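The protein record reproduced below.
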Amino acid sequence: MNTTLTPLEPPVGKAREVLAVVEQHNLATGFPATNRDVSTVMGYASTATAHRHLQSLKRRGLVVQRGKQGYVAAELEYRVAA
């Protein structure tokens, strides 16, 4: 089984849900979504779980990290405040 993920593979399961949360947050607020934002919406007890999902999406090129500000969906990167 090939476990290497490429940006062309669409996210599935929780990864898709986390990406949707990031996109919705970006569009609703105009700001990057933080680990805490994602963990609150997803109902995670720890921000570490959100961080793990966000890092996976980042490696696949689906989200962009804006330093300590948070994460922006790659397709919305230029529409969200810096």
Remarks:
- The chain has one domain: 14-79.
- The chain has a mean pLDDT of 87.
